[in-house]
Amino acid sequence: VKNKITITNDKGRLSKEEIEKMVKDAEKYKAEDEEVKKKVEAKNTLENYAYNMRNTIKDEKIGANLSAADKQKIEKAVNETIEWLDRNQLAEVEEFEDKLKELEGLCNPIIAKMYQGGAG
């Protein structure tokens, strides 16, 4: 859904400069809003992945197929990520993305191995 801001000049109340300033301000705020949105999405993606991994290893059907060492590795990484999130609510998009890559890099091979039946 695209929201458009329309600024009209009713009865000549606004000067050309005032209209241009309003348009510039609207563009500036749009860019700022998009940055905030990207940050929130990156943070939520990381948070969701961490909690999904936590739930995955706690699920008895799935967790039973993981070695204790692998389960511990994931649990430690997830806990560290959640703690990092708590301390870094205002991190930049790249920081959230880097943390996600780091966590996926550790978890995905373990989960893939488990689904291939070689968990031990």
TrEMBL record:
The cross-references to InterPro entries, in alphabetical order and at most eight, read:
HSP70_C_sf, HSP70_peptide-bd_sf, Hsp_70_fam
Q: What is its EC number?
A: 3.6.1.3
Keywords, in A-Z order = ATP-binding, Hydrolase, Nucleotide-binding
The enzyme class is hydrolase
* GO molecular function terms listed in the Swiss-Prot or TrEMBL record: ATP binding; ATP-dependent protein folding chaperone; hydrolase activity
Keyword Hydrolase assigned to the entry: answer is yes
Q: What is this protein called?
A: Adenosinetriphosphatase
Q: Which organism is it from?
A: Opuntia streptacantha
**Presence of the UniProt keyword Cell wall biogenesis/degradation in the record:** no
